């Protein structure tokens, strides 16, 4: 198992470098730069503009700038934000807690709700549970998250006044109860699109397992249908579900960016939008590094779970 984990970590390194290279190049291909914003407000002449480019390192070729930035990353230096002159790592450190809270809660929501509805759909196919789950999966996967967010804000925040519509704590005390109250709506919105995938994967995998011979044998021994479904069928349907977790993490992280803007959640989503608007390349790349590392770590962990569920995977690697 140890060799398998080391191999997966080594394989993740070129993937990480490839992601950062593509995003760095795309950022630099976009029209505009932080220099343009400074020059437009300060009225700099040609000499001052050139000196400013040299100060920010923008006078060098893009490939040279990328390798300088990459070497800094390996030394733990994410650079300095060109819009605030504050180290990128410091700013991200102030926001990462809020984003992790939202993303992790949304992931837990989507797994619990999606897997439960998927199990119920397989346990009683073509029942009311199955129909409700199908409708839920359709709505979650077809409607854009910002539209669902606006509808839920109107219903639960404006009309019913049950839940707050913005912020992480609002004007109240920074305690757990206040956090949970502000977290419910954005976490549900972020998890909505992933729930449909969990329902479909769980239902399909469970129906396939339920028709296997060992399930028929368990039933013939007099074991209850619910025990057969949970203890036997679900255990052998876990690999597709784990696969769905790996697929849903990038969607949840991406969905958090939009949702954080709608709910004024103080995470890295709003930070990313502001960095794009101000051409803050160092901030954009710093957030990209963070998201890439999180997604890669999650996938490595899931690969280890695969190997635990099916030892043949580690043996063949």
* Residue share in β-strands: under 5%
> What is the β-strand count?
0
> How much helix is in the residues?
over 70%
Spell out the helices and strands N to C.
HHHHHHHHHHHHHH
Given helix and strand content, the structural type is: mainly alpha
Give the termini distance in whole angstroms. 10 Å
User: What is the average of the pLDDT values?
Assistant: 82
Low-confidence stretches: none
Would you summarize the structure shown here?
79% of the residues lie in helices and 0% in strands.
Could you characterize what this model shows?
The mean pLDDT is about 80. By secondary structure, the protein is mainly alpha-helical. It is built from 14 helices and no strands.
